Amino acid sequence: MRVTLLSLCLLVLPGCSLLSGPDAERAWVDLQSAADNRLVTLELDGSPWRKNHFRLAPGAHQLAVRYQFDVNPRDIGGDTPHRRDCRLTLAYDDFTPGQRYRLQAGQHGFRPWIRLYDPYDRLVARGAEQGCRGG
For the sheet containing 128-133, what is the strand order? Predict the structure, then answer.
């Protein structure tokens, strides 16, 4: 029984390494926003990209995301939050293989922002708003 269990573990372990995750040949970009906001991928280098992260070949890339957030009623003089739905893009020329980056989105009132941080938590790029709906 122990031999069977050990054999099964040895067979399953290599399969775990094939699951999505950072690897030595690609850069990995995680998305991060406040818990009550929604940040999703839209495009990678102009092509549709529908995953919850970006896995990239080394070099330059343009990322496009959709960011949905509520504007605080105090910021607009009302009683209820106002929902915004925005498209943001960010370009970075030096994605390094084997590195894990963090793409973080947030807002100041009605205006969204997006920033890219390297594995050492250094700001390496800022993105731009490409248009919003709502508000």
Answer: 47-48, 38-44, 59-71, 82-95, 128-133
DSSP H helices, the chain, are 2-16, 73-76
pTM of structure: 0.78
d(CA 112, CA 126): 11
Q: In 3-state terms, what secondary structure has residue 46?
A: coil
pLDDT in tens, 22-81: 578 999 999 999 888 999 999 999 999 988 889 999 999 999 999 999 987 776 677 777
Count up the domains in the chain and report the number: 1
In a domain, 6, yes or no: no
pLDDT tens digits for 94-117? 999 999 999 999 998 889 999 999
Helix (H, G, I), strand (E, B) or coil at 48: strand
Q: Judge whether 102 lies within some domain.
A: yes
